[in-house]
Amino acid sequence: MKLPLSWLLQHLDADLNVDGLVDVMSMHGLEVEGVTRPGAGTAGVRTARVLDVRDHPDADNLRLVRVTGTDADDELDVVCGAHNFAADDIVLHAPPGATIPGMTLESREIRGQVSHGMLCSARELQLGDDHAGIIVLDASTPVGVDLGALIPVGEPVIEVAVQADRGDHWGVVGVARDLAAILDTTWYDVDVPEALAAPAMDVRLETQGCERFATWLVDDVKVGPSPLWMRQRLAQCGIRAIDIVVDVTNYVMLETGQPLHAFDRDTLQGSLTVRAARAGEQLTTLDNVERTLHVGDLVITDDARIVSLAGVMGGRDTEVRAATRSVLLEGAVWNPRAIRAAARRLGLVSEASLRFERRVDPEGAERATAHAAKLLAEHAAGHLNGTSLVRAATDPSWTERSVVAIDPVRVARLLGVSQLDTGEQQKLLERSGCAVDATADGLAVTPPSWRGDLQREADLAEEIARLHGYDRIPTEMPDVRVRGGLTFAQRRVRAARDAALALGFSEAVTRPFVGDGALVALLPSDRRLALANPLAKDAAALRPSLAEGLLAALRRNAGQGRPGTMLVEIGRIFRPEGDQLADALDAVSDADWRWRDPDGAPLPVQPLAIGFAAHGLRVGDRWLDTEARVDVFDVLAAIDEVVARIRRDVVLERRPVERAGFHPGQSAQLLLGGHEIGFVGALHPHEAERRDLAEPVIVGELLLDPLIATAPHAPATARTIRRHPALTVDVALVAPDTVSFAQIETAIRSGVGELLDAWWWFDEYRGPQVGEGNRSLAIRLRLHDDERQLTDDDAEQVIARVAEHAQGIGATLRR
Amino acid sequence: MTEIEELEEQALTALAGATSLDDVEDVRVRFLGRRSRLAALQKGLGDLDAARRKKLGQQLHRVRASLESLLAERRQELAEAALATRLASERLDVTLPPRRIRPGRPHLLTQVEQEIVDVFIGLGFQVAEGPEAEAGAFNFDLLNIAPDHPARQEMDTIYVADHDDVVLRTHTSPVQARVMTTQAPPIAVVVPGRTYRADTIDATHSPVFSQVEGLLVDEGVTMAHLRGTLLAFARAMFGEDREIRLRPSFFPFTEPSCEVDVSYESSPSGWLEVLGAGMVDPNVLTACGVDPEEYTGFAFGVGIERVAMLRHGVRDIRDFFDADARFLAQF
């Protein structure tokens, strides 16, 4: 809502400049979005009379205009391109030395003729967007007067973001009234004529959607342009001037917040009826669009047809035209819900529907209609010939005002302001226009008709606080009576992140939307959680996997010329219920991992996961090591560390797997209790090429929720530090390539038994010495016994047992 | 000059010419070794009479001891010279950047989120979570936002297809309802998380963003408590010299409602809007099964991106979501 300063102060007794006003408004619930000054920079522009108009000798479209600002001595020639005026018209002349926004005028030659300044259009003075012609003023306008003496050109216009519950702020008077309550001063309503005895129109209400319907009949109207001051205010509020009738309805709407409609009375047949639209009915609205109405939309009909879509837009066939002589002004109060529904459905949010949706003052419709009638009488030579008012038989719920009982002690306590006693609260509410009675239990408050937002004690508490001043609410610390802190699961998530970061992965946060063809790392499926109103085609669904967002991030970094990037992201992944992801979650954990709606129905599957993506160079053992590239083991190591930080009691089983989009020989499922909860793989060369990423590109993903849900909460218990020195034994096992390391590890573990303290592999050899299709793995074992010093005999026995168990998997010990 | 004296002199000359430990060893072998002339003389002592044996023996002993001591001295000198050479050759430019494995950085949004959450944990709050694909009932209805409430339209909601009334939560407030419908007061929680709006991406708008919601419900919670809590938050996050101011505002789920500004020298007005807050609307309490006659509460919602942008001078909200390593490495 835009509020020209002069208009606001016309209705408010306040001694404040614009900055003071903005401060007061900001601190009392009128959020100021900005202050503009349309037309600022205009100086020296004056009214002038056109003496005569001649064609420019050397330009077809230009004319030479002789104007005078005062008397004959002051005659000046101006070259002008507009054609909407003639001799004797009064226009706005910017003579040499005058300024208009962005320009200083001087005498200059235009096609061989000297032009002494210019004649101004509305757009040039920021008084509207009309640039087809210049401004022609009413014939009664005095000549030679500075524009600033006629209208406050360049004055501040305060723009307010109106709160959703404050329909009364959608008019200048409503804002002035609220400011009067805030400042404890006087406000001035519009001055309106008494209702006439003669009826304006016969109107029947056949629906619940209309609370009242006021009409004024104005005859003998001369439809012409509006006065300059009205056009300025419309322009300041961002509304285009059309003609006096349309302008008056808009002007009164801006001033009072009550939308009005003007019919050409002579196009209406018989009487008016307000009813709900029926199936298939149509209306061509003012904007020349033929609209099919929805059953139940509120409409106004005459005896022949629908003439208006109530509260949203009038019909084309009954609109006011230049030739209109008789105007029927309508001011009605419509059900906000009905108007909102109709406007949304038709995609037609108008200045009127916007106000009706937010509830207009039901007591304001008659005054606004009368005010408009008066303005038409004053500025369009109209005669006021009738007034009618029809009201609904019973007050509908949306205009009902009930008495609100409040307990001032409780209100003061809620606000934490002890000095707000009953009397003070009563005074503040009365400033807001409430009728307040003291009762045995507190106060009985009847809010004013324009404050539909004041319905409960809490609403009145806010009103009291607002007028008392939010800045007078004291500062106290609450006594928080719960034990604060992170939960076990929340601490584990932080630990998981820390582990990934420590291993060199930087944390990314990516937008969780994907398009078609998104790569899925973990538990792949084609099922997507699609969006009903996606922002873009490549953001049509929520991510089923963290892979896609991280790969896009790798690509962006590669595009910056980075030789290598390692990223981690922790976030939710999304699948529809019934996806195999849900099956895996069900299988792994007994905990109820599903999010549900209030009725207990499950929401889409959305567990927390940690994702990794890495490609290119990593930091090697030496400086400038251009050979150290990431591989699947970097991500496997990171996932192992993440798992270890959450659960010391499990090691995920790794199983080779072939998966779409991934290297068939470099991909592994990570299993917990036989169920996939993680995956690591190198991108398939085709997939890497498609993404313009240099290989190797490694992706990993792990579900955090089931891992955390099944993690033991018990703290770690200390293991005795060994006193006897360890014995180190190296073994080498030769096995066919088909025997995985995991199998070899199992054989070694069972072979060595309890003496095994630690082990690690340190060499992998393929070559003639071990035969085609075989490899030799060298493994160092650290053996230990708490009770005694181990000897060479122990070593021999261990080697023998490893050899024995190796045989079981088709491996042989190499001595 | 006796033979022994001659030998001694030769040995001294040889030793003087020794420039390495190997040279020194050669001298030792030549003059003191088993096959040296001194050794032979030593061996021949047995053939001599007692008087000469004694005299020659003493002579031999003196020369041997003297040579051994000189040899040791020479070895020591050479070892020290060698060490000095080695140390000189091992000189490093210790101002070179060290080789290191760089740990990754937590995302700025994570850092700010954790910092905010930790402030409230310090004040005694717990941390709650909720789903991002959320039931409309939690996101709207239980929060006093009726289906045709204007605020519902203004929220630019992204809806999940093929589901009845599932939305991408437009704020973290639905978790308020989740907590209140499952726990009895006293309740003190903060809720960090991602939220969504159908906003076109530009420098200040993102369809995905992050919030921290706060909720305190107990007997006798007042607006003064809200102010005190938020002042503590503002000072912890922005500096101990900060002040806050509350301005009336409207949220469907709080009444009274306020916008909260934090004092900011570089802002023209001296204040910057940082969060929205208010006393939990009685309708919300009732809908969530909390008796508004018995309990009151306050709630607030902080935009994490907003705090991060203010504190760290981030000018473009897109930087948070593009994962550019040059951005990530800065914090």
How would you describe the overall organization of this protein?
The complex is a heterodimer of chains A (815) and B (331). With 815 residues, chain A is α+β, with helices and mostly antiparallel strands. Chain A is built from 20 helices and 41 strands. In chain A, a hairpin with a 2-residue loop joins strand 9 (107-110) and strand 10. The longest helix of chain A is centred in the C-terminal third of the chain and has 17 residues, at 792-808. The radius of gyration of chain A is 41 Å and the shape is elongated. Chain A starts with a strand and ends with a strand. The mean pLDDT of chain A is 93. The mean pLDDT of chain B is 93. In chain B, strands 1-5-6-10-9-8-7 form a seven-stranded mixed beta sheet, sandwiched between helices. The longest helix of chain B has 40 residues, at 50-89. Chain B has twelve helices and ten strands. Helix content of chain B is 43%, strand content 20%.
The mean pLDDT of chain A is 93
Biggest interface, chains and residues, is:
A-B, 95 and 95 residues
Principal-axes geometry of chain A comes out as elongated
Lateral strand order in the biggest sheet of chain B: 1-5-6-10-9-8-7
H/I helix tally of chain A: 20
**What integer is the average pLDDT of chain B?**
93
- Work out the radius of gyration of chain B: 43 Å
Query: What integer value in Å does the Rg of chain A equal?
Result: 41 Å
Q: Work out the helicity level of chain A.
A: 25-40%
